[in-house]
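Ticket #4471: structure export looks truncated?
Reporter: QA, pipeline team
Priority: medium

Steps to reproduce: submit the single chain below to the structure queue and open the exported record.
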Amino acid sequence: MSSMVDVNRRPRGLTRGAAVWHTTGPHELASVIGKLELLERDRVTLRARVGSALLLLDMNTQELIEVRLTERSCSASTEISIFSPLGARLLAACPGDMLTLGGFSGGYRLLLVRVEPAPS
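Actual output as written to the record:
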């Protein structure tokens, strides 16, 4: 099963130059603020936080993708900012959560398989 893990890729459509995936609107910002407050109150539940390593299953292609949540925009293909539309959805998610992203070709469905806490 480890041969299926490609730690150097994100879902193809999410790395394309389409503005919808790279801009954050008021809805995403409000969502991030609310989730950061939730994470501050709930330090017990295993949830995706800034610095967490996440394993996602792309339900469209059945590929496993490993990413890390960050606070800032970055050029590394394995890092996703919590202020991006995808990062805003991943923040505070728990293993087993299904994330649906509308858009290209009907969108993406991603299953959050694993959350590894940020290194101390």
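Status: closed, not a bug. The export was complete when the record was re-opened. Leaving a note from the reviewer for reference: The domain at 2-116 is CATH 3.10.50.30 (Chitinase A; domain 3).
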